[in-house]
Design goal:
564 residues, 2 strands
Length: 564
């Protein structure tokens, strides 16, 4: 019953999309055809009044008197100009993702009203530019021991200025309060979090520790940016943990005395949770996975006590989910999904693709495309395929990284949900978990590309299936979050604009004609005459029809129209 309902739903959506596409194309093509026929009819009917026949005969005499050198120069110049336009169009398309001529025509010449209406509707709520929200990457790496080591080896910067600026804003939100001016070390660290130069931040952290050896924020900054190994970072975080626990207990007692002390307690809580989370990540990276799982579970219990309202922003459950997959505790992962894969909670690639992995794990070891095509999908296989389709609809970029069709890079410190940055961050940690499940990547490969997830959503920017329509701002946001050397994945795939194809065709044809005319002028003249005679033969029936229509028209039609 469920399989029949699934097939009926798919056929209904496919027929609906095809019908809407047909009506849209037919209506515009019909209008263009009517306009062209009207222009041709008016030109032919008033050919005597505008002396078009005499003009054509004069033009033919003029063109016949020109030498082949003129045609060579003409075609060569046209080819050069078309080539320059093609290069500019290609560069603009690669950099901004749209055609320059198309953009100018849409914005200034009022060509393509549908696109203008769509853009207007999409940007009406955003004040001219669609807004997007970036999230803190719950699995972000350490700058000193991971990002900086990559930069030392490759000479390429793994983080963008925009990404690091967002991190600086997060640090100011988490680790500062209104009472920072009362303590010298807190005042120094408040300036350090705003500092752009990494060496200046490190110097400020050392200065804050000289003022107060119990400054937890100073140890955090040194562990994040100065430590060159995970072991060194863990040692500094353990020192920060001792300091932060003392400050947290003090502020917890005094938090209800006045608003300033309450803000200070909130700051100390943020510092404590951040340190514990990073210590858990250190343990996970050093192979102490079960210790990391225990620390993450304690943090989630801390969240249930409602003492930390910003816990959802850190998404610690995704850290726990990844660690549980490492030890292959699939039952515990399923329990986490049952709690966090809820319709009222925000989704992520980790939740959607982990749910798909667990369902694929049941059937993937014996799955075969040939067998499934012959006998159809079983209930378990259909459930796994639908879970993959759901994950692909949420983030269509992740499968290429999981199937190793695109090169992985270090994940950024912030991600855009449903974007390429989230796909990079997910695949960086979860690719080994897919490889642990035998046949899971094979099932993903057989079902993701060209699947119902794409066929059921022919216009993903306008309409979704299980989720909201795919946002059209992911490409620009991902280009700001991901480094310049990374080739950003774009969905839906942008086709080459019509203007670039036309310019490329004109450039190629004119270049070929210029070369042939220069090398074989007599042969090209003979070919031109042959083509002209062939076209005249093809147009003979139309000329006869027009003469018949002209004979049926009254001779004084032009005089009557001038009177009207």
């Amino acid at each position: 019953m469920s399989k029949a309902f699934h097939c009926l739903k798919f056929m209904t959506s496919a027929v609906e999309s095809l019908w809407l596409n047909f009506v849209r194309l037919w209506s515009w093509n019909c209008l263009w055809l009517v306009w062209i026929l009207l222009v041709v009819f008016l030109v032919y009917f008033f050919r005597e009044s505008i002396q078009i026949i005499e003009s054509i005969s004069t033009m033919s005499i003029f063109l016949g008197s020109l030498s082949p050198r003129f045609y060579v120069a003409l075609t060569g110049t046209s080819s050069l100009i078309s080539g320059i336009i093609l290069i500019v169009e290609w560069w603009y398309f690669r950099k901004y993702g749209t055609s320059f001529i198309e953009q100018v025509s849409n914005n200034h010449l009022a060509i393509g009203s549908d696109d203008n209406e769509t853009n207007t509707n999409q940007t009406a709520d955003g004040g001219g530019k669609q807004k997007f929200k970036v999230w803190r990457n719950p699995l972000n790496l350490f700058r000193g021991s991971e990002y900086n080591r990559f930069q030392w080896v490759t000479g390429q910067e793994p983080l963008t200025f925009y990404d690091m600026n967002l991190s600086a804003q997060d640090h100011q939100t988490y680790f500062t309060s209104e009472s920072d001016h009362l303590r010298t070390c807190d005042n120094i660290m408040q300036k350090a979090w705003r500092e752009r130069n990494p060496q200046a931040r490190i110097r400020a952290a050392h200065q804050a520790l000289k003022e107060d050896p119990e400054c937890a924020a100073g140890y955090i900054l040194l562990a994040e940016e100065e430590a060159t190994t995970i072991l060194e970072a863990e040692r500094l975080f353990k020192k920060a943990l001792k300091c932060s626990e003392v400050l947290y207990r003090k502020s917890q007692i005094l938090q209800h005395h006045n608003p300033i002390l309450e803000a200070e307690h909130r700051r100390d809580t943020n510092v404590l949770v951040y340190i514990k989370r990073r210590l858990a990540m250190c343990a996970r990276k050093l192979g102490r996975t079960r210790e990391a799982i225990k620390m993450m579970r304690d943090l989630l219990l801390f969240q249930l006590m409602k003492e930390f309202p910003l816990m959802n922003m850190l998404n610690i459950h995704e850290n726990l989910m990844e660690a549980l997959l490492e030890i292959q505790a699939y039952a515990d992962v399923q329990a986490l999904l049952h709690k966090y894969d809820d319709i009222s909670l925000p989704k992520s690639a980790t939740i959607c693709y982990t749910a798909a992995l667990l369902k694929a794990r049941v059937v993937c070891d014996k799955f075969s495309r040939e067998v499934a095509t012959k006998r159809g999908l079983s209930a378990a296989e259909l459930s796994a395929v639908e879970a993959i389709h759901r994950a692909v609809e949420f983030n269509p970029h992740a499968p290429k990284y999981l199937l190793e069709m695109k090169c992985l890079i270090l994940p950024p410190e912030h991600i855009l949900k449903r974007g390429d940055s989230e796909a990079v961050a997910y695949a960086f940690y979860h690719l080994p978990h897919w490889k642990h499940v035998s046949g899971a990547l094979n099932l993903l490969h057989c079902t993701w590309e060209g699947s119902a997830a794409f066929r059921m959503i022919p216009y993903p920017l306008e309409k979704g299936n299980l989720f909201y329509p795919y946002p059209n701002c992911t490409e620009s946001a991902d280009r700001e979050l991901l480094p310049a050397f990374h080739y950003v994945s774009v969905y839906p795939k942008k086709e080459w604009p019509l203007y670039i194809m036309v310019v490329a065709s004109v450039c190629t044809i004119t270049a070929i004609l210029a070369i042939l005319t220069h090398q074989y002028p007599e042969t090209m003249i003979v070919c031109a005459k042959t083509i002209t005679e062939f076209l005249s033969l093809l147009l003979t029936p139309f000329a006869v029809i027009l003469e018949k229509v002209d004979s049926l028209m009254p001779a004084s039609m032009w005089h009557l129209l001038t009177k009207i």
